[in-house]
Amino acid sequence: MIGTTSKRKIEHLKLCAESPVESRKVSAGFEDVTLIHRALPELDMDKLNTSIDLLGKRLQAPFLIASITGGHPDTISVNAALATAAEELGVGIGVGSQRAVIDDPAQEESFRIVREKAPSTFIYGNVGAAQIREYGVEVVEKLIEMIDADALAIHLNFLQEAIQPEGDRDATGCLDMITEICSVLDTPIIIKETGAGISREDALLLKKAGVSAIDVGGVGGTSWAGVEVYRARKSGDSVSEHLGELFWDFGIPTVSSIIESRVSLPIIATGGIRTGVDIAKSIALGASAASAALPFVSPALEGKDSVVRVLSRMLDEFRIAMFLCGCANIQDLRNAPVVVTGWTLEYLGQRGFNVKDYAVAGDVF
Hints:
Elements lengths: L3 H15 L14 E3 L16 E3 L2 E3 L3 E3 L10 H14 L2 E3 L4 H5 L5 H9 L5 E6 H7 L1 H10 L4 E6 L1 H6 L10 H11 L4 E5 L6 H10 L3 E3 L8 H12 L2 H9 L7 H7 L6 E4 L5 H10 L3 E4 L4 H6 L1 H21 L5 H5 L3 E3 L1 H9 L15
Parallel strand pairs: 4-5, 4-11, 5-6, 6-7, 7-8, 8-9, 9-10, 10-11
Antiparallel strand pairs: 1-12, 2-3
Helix pairs in contact: 2-4, 2-15, 8-9, 10-11, 13-15
């Protein structure tokens, strides 16, 4: 018998594949970011080095397929397609929330399949902050072991929890539990927002807690408040539907959140990453890697070849962006000048960020 959490997982997957779930009125902010074109790049594009080391693992490009699914029998083939593509192209991958397998161990195969199909690439596990507070370190260790994870993402989705009628709205004690887990586990811990962004205040708290990396999960991509609108509408829950509509675009856009989260930790830029140019802009702004989920949902339902096609296109776009910026490797791209204008520049100024602190070779972003 399929449990409630497992049913919700497959429902979420279908909604993301079939319904408009992206931010409506707030963008990730990449239109405010301009990379500086080098008319004389003096490079052979076929010899660019796009590889990185991320939390002790080598990747062929600074990209991960972000957490999508798992926890239901119908997700086994989806995760198999995603993992096989990630292994083939040398990028990382995260699994969906492993909460379902805590509630129902019979769903383990939907997660184990990821390591089976991606034996050598970077894989991160995934569990919610509310769950680690409830279940503790021992369960977290089992989730890591289940997929031989290279890191564990603890996701913060309190916006979604606040809207779900069955959501966990008690956020007390999560920081203490994160601190404890970071102190007792050897596995790197990534803190991952799920669509509302990370502020400087929280980034500093997380650094002090001992986390290994921050995944900003900013506004501009999938809105989980939006996903909950569809669920509420289907069940006739007018209160949750209203809340989801109101908070559809709530939070910090991805570009701004990258800057907010620059506290000397690796940053993963997630939220509205749709092209290789977005990946390049993220790296130039200070991210160590970028990730995306929604662009791969429908392809994963079709099979591995469709995922490879979409992922290959993004990575080709990324290489062209590097080439046109005169960047032979990722370190060059991290040092490349960018210009930031518009709403994002105004936001950063209002938040007290001095743009000159991020200037490269005299170029103000």
